[in-house]
Amino acid sequence: MASISKICLYKPFSLSFAGSVKDQTLLQRCNFPATCILREQVPLKNECRVFARMPERTGTGVSTYLRETGTGENGDYARNDLDISHLISVLKFCGGEGCLEFGRTYHGLIAKTGLDGDEFVNTCLIDMYAKCGDIDSAVTVFNQMPRLDVASCNCLISGYANCGLFEEAFRLFMNYESWGNKPNSYTYSSMLAICGTLSAIEEGKQLHAQVVKMQYLSETAVSNALLTMYCKFEAMADAESLFERLPQRNIVSWTAIIHGLYQHEGFEKAMRLFCLMRESGIEPNDYTFTIALASCGNMKNIDNCRLLHGLVIKKGMALGEFVGTALIDMYSELRETDDAEKQFKEMGNLTSKVSRNALIKGLVQNEKAYEALDAFSEMVRKDAACDEFSFSPILKACASLPSFMSCQQIHAQVVKANFDKNTHVGSSLIEAYTRCGSVEDAEKVFSHISAPDVVSWNSVIKAYSQNGNPRRAISLFRTMIIKGFRPTGSTFLAVLSACSHSGKIQDGQEIFQSMINEFGVSPEEAHYSCMVDLLGRSGQIEKALDFINNTPIKPTASIWRPLLAACRCHNNLRIAEFAAKHILAMDPNDATVYVTLSNMYIEAGLLENAENQRKLMKLKEITKEPGCSWIEVNNKIHKFFSRDRRHPESEKIYNKLKQIMMLIKGTAYSTNADSLQVKEDFCLYHSEKLAVCFGLISLAAGKPVRIFKNLRVCTDCHMFMKFASMITDRVIILSDNYRFHHFNKGGCSCGDYW
Hints:
It is a single chain. The chain is 65% helix and 4% strand. By secondary structure, it is mainly alpha-helical. Strands 2-1-3-4-5-6 form a six-stranded mixed sheet, covered by helices on one side.
């Protein structure tokens, strides 16, 4: 056996041992003495049956049960009336339902009537306490037993596993023989499950050898546990080999191997085995169908998926919670959202929180944010319970639009449902508020998360990085490390981006080196691209080029693009042509390259070269993405294009624009009159100007105006926003395809460095 210290480094997990079986089966499973197994089975009393069926058990219900069964304060069973089989039923019920106090009451009764010396009763007590999570009481009962048999040991191992105490489980297993016991098939099933969860490969193989030696491989439960263990080890060759040699295969065996293949993306193999299973005469259950549908969806074969759907309908399982939800997931994976919604509607009253979450997630994945918001609203209207799997995807929908008002409304639902301290929901909220340009709200959410993880830290660092506060981003990065969190590639990308946005060359270079040397994080394409941007944006074009030439990976178009942008900013036509050549070699239809070169040629007086770029675009039928800006007003998104007059409020928008331009020309713009006079006709009606003017006439006084644009904001529009914020006394937040600009009182958060 490997050292136990190695095994205990893993997190707790949940492992069910006894399951919902009849009492006599439970006796056989735990290897109880034959005298106990052969006792006459006494059915659960009527009062216990009624109590077990109660949807909610309160203190009053427990008291009534105890009084009616004669086990309360005013009633006692005589020893001869207290049948052990009745005790089994009650203790089993307590363990299954988590009724710890009820179980303690019966334990007191057992002690009072002298049955606490019975091995069988004590084993049931251990099982009850373990399932209720009171492992200390289980150990106390175990230690007080005069004789320890394999059944009591099995129950305690299961309890340790339930509580994540794997070191104790292994120690107990290694002591079996010292108590005169030999592990039975259920012992090995439990231990193999633990090894699979811990990825304890060496220990698992040793147990496998013992199973073969003890001739337990013919036991279906043991062979299935072995099969599941190897699947969790990602040792699919071993799992498949074991499956082929199994003397008996039941539905659990087939489902385990199919599930293992699915988890390791062997979708075709999984479906092949699914068909072989049916040919062998074993029909799939709900869980097998769920895996098969997921595998089929990942194969992207719509015809096979519809055939499988037909089989599910034939078996009468299409409307069940698990299979019905799997169908929604399958059609979402195939981007057939209409079919996913149809399946959801056909489930009718059988829809659950799980199926609703699946529909919302599928719509978000397929970029149908508005439909996802509608589905979520319907969920709220029906007063359906929401959980973290409801909130996280719908917040992604808000972020993708982005919709600040929807984000606020869903945040209110999060607070109402008491999920505001949840780590996953909190991280999604931070991301959504960041995409909406509200870093203040993102910071508030972060401060309320009860146990922030690395993802939460990454999200809040990214929020400050993208919203013009690089110092705060770097400060949070250092605080995160001090608090013991290990930064990931995403962390470094956010911090390097902050350095790039603010021109912190030295900080950026030091952080990049620490990423490799101190934290052992291998840079990816995005990190190299960020470093090129950091150097190029500051004017160090030659150094940026040297950095690209010395990268350990082959430079991609994404790495060359920031160099081209830097050349455009600093008028370096020679290196711009060099960078453009490399980009077009990998992405010949990149319109931005042609447009950038054309503009640079015009500024250099090389009009013929500029015209050649335009001709090339026309010849290759390459079109530049049109600039588009949008703003959210009264829960509705309004889109604008350059010189757009399709909006019903166009006249008011253009009048507002003229009014602001008149005020600007009378003040600060006079210092830039020459350059602006040339650009005015071309730039005056850019989409972001129209959007901000619509916001100014539509939003309440003092409310921030949030604008989003698909392209980088031009210099003229950036200047316009600064002065518009001063003249109108409004905060204007503009997000382009690279970062956020927060304009206030004539200044911008970027410090004119963007």
